[in-house]
């Protein structure tokens, strides 16, 4: 993610902004340009002077994306991926759904920056609320259909689940990045003929998935996973290892882009001249994996130190071992060197 500027007054803008706090201009994100634009009173985007129309979910305050006026679609590229949204007539569902959509827009922004396909014909989302008398909704993926439990958008409920499952990290955006990773395994590995390379790093994904998850949840918490995996859940099965690493890769490039947008300079690394400094002045979407890894470690040290200053838990409770770095490097490779699979 990066920062933006109001075309009318130059004020600093963030991805979710809908009104410029300085000049009062209406704002909207233009997905085809990857930029936030101010609008004239008659609906022209100041970015390029062209007319735009709002995604239909703008009316629900659940989106801030705009489309070319002549576009046949009435939903933006993020919202048109919705297969099911919660019943908005039920009290409390609307604010939770808005959080879902905000996280999904951030996901789609990163996928677009990586030039990864996400056509609505292949990838779709269902945001499901629990119903009285029915089993709780399970978050998961099946052949491009991602289901996210609406309860995950409730901060208190999500934190309770994180604690119950002994997880160091659990976010709504993290869920989406993890689940979409399962679909990109199909696109980037399976359909691209790179399964042998995958198995050399992650293991044999053809092993019984249900049995592996059952065994994982039956075991008491342990540290056996450390060193070879990014998280305990990643050790459950190669598919989960991939999805955890894929989500982590998206965390990395998104955070590094924002750090570079702020012009951050951090200094926990000693170079050959005896200078402690790391300039985050490159695009992680164009950099090699080695540069990404070299910048990521000092950035996360800084992020954690700042959180501790505020008395909050570490923002980044992970350690990148050499085996995990190799897995991330494979993901970087298949993302940037993928064949056209028709998705």
The largest sheet, given as strand count, sense and whether it forms a barrel, is:
4 strands, mixed
Morphology call: globular
Class of secondary structure makeup = alpha+beta
The beta-strand count equals 12
Rounded to the nearest angstrom, the radius of gyration is 21 Å
- Beta-strand share of residues: 5-15%
> How many helices does DSSP assign?
8
Q: Average pLDDT across residues?
A: 92
Write the element-wise H/E pattern from the N-terminal end onward. EEEEEEEHEEEHHHHHEEHH
Biggest sheet strand order reads: 7-8-10-9
Rounded to the nearest angstrom, the distance between the terminal CA atoms is: 24 Å
Helical residue percent band: 25-40%
Low-confidence stretches: none
The domain tally reads: 2
InterPro entries: UCP012641, Zinc-ribbon_6_bact
Domain Zinc-ribbon: 3-89
Protein name: Zinc-ribbon domain-containing protein
